[in-house]
Amino acid sequence: MKKEAIRNAKTFDELLDIKYGETGTSTRDEYEAKANYFVISEMLKEARKEAHITQEQLADKIGTKKSYISRLENGKADIQVSTLFKIFETGLGRKIRLTLL
Predict the structure, then answer these.
(1) Which string of DSSP letters, residue by residue, matches 8-24?
(2) Residues of the chain with pLDDT under 70
(3) What's the pLDDT tens digit per position in 91-100?
(4) 8 A C-beta contact, residue 66 and residue 59
(5) Domains defined for the chain, CATH in brackets
(6) Residue 91: is it exposed, middle or buried by C-beta count within 10 angstroms (0-12/13-18/19+)?
(7) I need a surface site. Which of 13, 18, 48, 99 has the fewest CB within 10 A?
(8) Residue 83 backbone phi and psi in degrees, to 5
(9) 63 close to 56: Cβ distance less than 8 angstroms
(10) Helices assigned H by DSSP within 1-101
């Protein structure tokens, strides 16, 4: 039954509904949170590499430890919005804009 539903899905959202439940369910919310952490970690890693600096150099610029930058880049640590701004704006010289939906 699930395989048939997957074959008949027409959008990515329908696939997510089948696999993780509808938006607002605990399983879907957990998936969405993990997906967002992944996106942020990949953006951080890519921006750092484009700036041609190491994790240690970035950590020194913002006053933290290399291990924290590593955990962020691997999606293993939570990040506060203020730290996110500090990393991108102070550490990487990039502007950041958040959109709330």
Answers:
(1) H--SHHHHHHHHH-STT
(2) none
(3) 999 998 888 8
(4) yes
(5) 2-91 (1.10.260.40)
(6) buried
(7) 99
(8) -70, -40
(9) no
(10) 2-8, 12-20, 26-50, 55-62, 66-73, 81-85
